[in-house]
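Same chain as my last thread, 138 residues:
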Amino acid sequence: MIDHENGMSTNDLSDPFNQSQSAEQRQVIRTKTLGHASDAPSSSEYKKVADKIAREEAQAKSENRAEQADEIKAKILDKASEMRHLKYDVIEDADIVQISVVSSADGTIIRKVPPDKIVSFVKRIREKEEKRKLDIKA
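reply #2:
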């Protein structure tokens, strides 16, 4: 981020209190921070500038996070429209539980497990078994 008042970047002020910097590096930072090499800034002035930069960075991050949150919300809503749910039906004639995959957006049935053909086949077999049992008892 560039501070437009004095033309410096936050990289120039990465750690103004870092003792590992040379005296020349600290003077360059002071010059870029306050604008004049002859001014000898106090640590409180230096701290004020560093705090201002930190506040600006925090504000930029929070704005970026808000934009990211909006993008995530939009993606979630898109995915929610594509979502599916399951519906369970107990078919007593065939003694089977049939599961239907249903689109949440419009309620259309996407797939049934087991398929209707299998359910109707099992129903017919059960009916024939019942008839045989009745024929045998009679």
